[in-house]
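hiii, so i know i said id send this last week but things got crazy w the move. better late than never?? heres the sequnce for the chain we talked about at the cafe, plus the structure i predicted for it. fair warning i was half asleep when i ran it
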Amino acid sequence: MCFWRGNLLFSKWLTSAAAGGCAPSLSRARVVIVQSDSVRTTKNRFNAKVVEKVLDEGLRALFHGGTSTSIWRQLFSSEDVVAIKLNCIAGRGLSSNKEVVRAIVSGLRSAGVKSENIILFDRMGQDLRRAGYRISTVRGQVRCVGNDRIGYSRDLLMHKSIGSMVSRVVSEYATAIINVPVLKDHGIAGVSIGMKNFFGVIHNPNKYHINACDPYVADLCSHPWIKDKLRLTICDALTAQFEGGPPYMPQWAWPFNGLLISQDMVALDYVGWQIIEKKRKQAGLKSLREVGREPKYILTAADQDHRLGVADLKSIEIKQLKI
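okay and structure toks below
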């Protein structure tokens, strides 16, 4: 292992980004919502075994049965380097929960993915620490790093409306990505769920918040580094938020006690958007359109130019489970 003042240099024992993917064929417009009232032990603490069961049952529903291990082995090979994109900007209370991430890591290991080839990452190391994660680059173990440490691509990515440097985790190391966003609203973008989470892989996301992030979110997610490497989106909705985001505002958060799972990130975002709208209506708040922050980038992602997924409830198969 080598270090250059803040930048981690992955040595030869980490498989390069040339490994092939093996994602199974699946109707892309399928979203599973799985919930359990038993998942929560206290207000902000969760039962790890129940979380793992929620994830397993959600995957089995998404892929129409089979064992969780067989599903993980269809999705990932032992040669993959798997990057898990977390969302930790809100700190404890509204970040990707460790119990969910541990269940994902366990699934990857069951597929034969080596611990050292699993990378947990987010934009800033301080965000990871505030959410309860420990920065780690120990050989033979799961990595946990911020982009501020691992660094960004040397060259500027020029793609559609995007001109950014991209996390080396995405541009150089990962052969596959699991996206683990949080179900929450966003004061500019409308919602921050799956696609918006990838603003955390570029060095200049603030540049792209005009016009409620449209078309910038869709443009970024259409780049092959994201589009072709993304295997699965697992939205952590154990705690969700319908107003005041992206920071954690407990007065607008509620215990959804579940996960949203899909291989179609656009469909998942659309379904998550509707969940947030429903909760806003129940709370007597105006719709996101009425307050001027309708997340149109979700619709843009489904248009003929992007074709990243489905943003039409009539074309989305939604499976809801309660366990």
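btw Residues 1-27 have pLDDT under 50 and may be disordered. thought thatd interest u
miss u guys!!
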